[in-house]
TrEMBL record:
This is A-kinase anchor protein 7-like phosphoesterase domain-containing protein. It comes from the Eukaryota. It comes from Caenorhabditis briggsae. Residues 23-169 form the A-kinase anchor protein 7-like phosphoesterase domain. Pfam families: AKAP7_NLS.
Amino acid sequence: MMPTLLKTFLFFQLFACIYTNYNAFFALMVTNPTVVQQVNQIETNLTKTNAQFVKFVHNTSYLHIRLNTIELNETTLPLIQNFLKDLPKAICNVSYSVPALFEGTAVKANTTLHGKVNAMSSTVISSVHQKIYSLLNGTGILSIDEHVIFHPKMDIVELDDRKHEDLLQIMFNRTGDFKLNTGDFIKEIVLFNATPSGAFHDVIGRAPLAPCSNFTVFKPELLSNRVPIFTNIDDLDFKK
């Protein structure tokens, strides 16, 4: 019999190998200038307090809320391209302008400082996430969640695996330095790919969201003798 400790170790090794195949993810990119300004101030306040955090702050040009993680390779590339083209119409009943309204910041596991979205935003974003997941199921594109339970959040500082007791302590001692009380209404879903450095900051696809009214809808009785013609959507910015 294989010792339990060894089996556990091998399981996590296998899981790590499998998970590394999931090298791209859908996200809501937060670009509202007021949000960016507040996050910049948070990062400045934190790094002034403790300079060790400088290398862990997120680039505010790529603030985002992660949605579904997928496997991207030569086989799935054309599938994902078609998926992005079809996504605006497929998701229009869920949301065509996704609210990302923040109500402060929080620390998770003493390693990640993130922006918290309010309850309404969390509900809508979770619905978008679930819709994408159900749509992916029918495409052959493998999808996985980073966490068992999806909780939308916007990472601001992400530390390494070492213990950083200072982060939690600074948060509690200087609450005024971590205000995030603004938001954004996001009108597109982007697809990020991993760059050679391992950072997910390469936008390789965009799906601009639109109301259902932007798509031509025919009455059921006309479907038998007319070919549906949908309103054109601008070609997606998809790098080859």
